[in-house]
Amino acid sequence: MFWRLLWKLLRGSSGRLVVAILALVSGGMVISALLNLEFDIERKLTQEFRMLGANLVISPGHDAAQMPGAAPSALMNESDAFAAIQNLKDPAVVAAVPFLYIVERADDTPVVVAGTKLEDLPKLEPSWRIEGQWTSSRDDQIPCVVGRNVVQQLHLALNSPLHLSYVGKTAQLTVVGIVDAGGAEDNQVFLQLPEVQSFAGLPGQIGLVQLSVRGTAKSISDYAARLATALPAYEVRPIRQVTEAEGDLLNRIRLLIVSMVLLILVLTALCVLATMAALAMERRQDVGLMKALGGSITRIVALFMAEVGVLGAAGGLVGAILGIELSRWMGQRVFGTAISVRWEIFPLTIALMVAVALAGALPLRLLGKVKPAVIFRGE
Fold first, then answer.
1. Residue 148 above 90 pLDDT?
2. What pairs with residue 111 in β-bridges?
């Protein structure tokens, strides 16, 4: 009997309840989209910030180690640095790339030459644009990648020869790629690290290591602390501009999402409240008749609360489904990729919509105070 009465109530007040169900579906849709975005925002934001390149640097411990043409005393041992990175075995490390800088001459023009692992540079600096390729499979040439400013200065092109000299030594290179990094790297020539080490007479020596590490500012700082413990002779430091900006932006986005969720919950509850207030006035006679026939106040109020709960659950379920699609669209517009579906969004959204519906159904609880005699007199 209880469920039959509930079904009759839902059918009999369908016109009035449409407004409430639309409010619940709309609120559930936006809330589920925001919650799905909140659960996936850290991963997406981390991916976007990794496009900015390295966010952690290992150096000999003083600024001289980072200067082109650094003296041997300002260098570090390549095997020591990479042994520590390998021993930590942290899956958050996207790339770890060594660099050794020297100043060579090309046709009496000084150029900065960076020895590195060319095949790993795209992982470290995914935003760099390159024309050509990073390495060459030919054994009869020494490949190099040159910055766009060097190309203009020395009038180079792809597959052009490049003659370099350094302290009486000479090398004939072949330009296999032209890089556009948008920074100081556009003024450099990139070679494989062993070539530069041999050219400079510094086997096994590097100037610094740049790392790209996934995670929040705190997790990156924690990894830097562990790496510094493993490398006490060197300086390990996060690039603050990148890590702090990432953490600050993540906190701001989360605060915005939480604020929007709370605001939408309040507005949805007010819309349901207005609808239920009008519905309560219409049902005074029905309640009076139920009480006159011996219905208990508890059962009558439970019947109306069940009706509201069904509306909240239905609105939450439909809203969650629509919200998942909305979050996908938001991900494509903001991050260029869809937001991953988090299935815990469905029960959470349904629970929130049921709670909002019950909070907005406060006027229906006042029906328990209706007196049958007053209703029958038409007052």
1. yes
2. 104
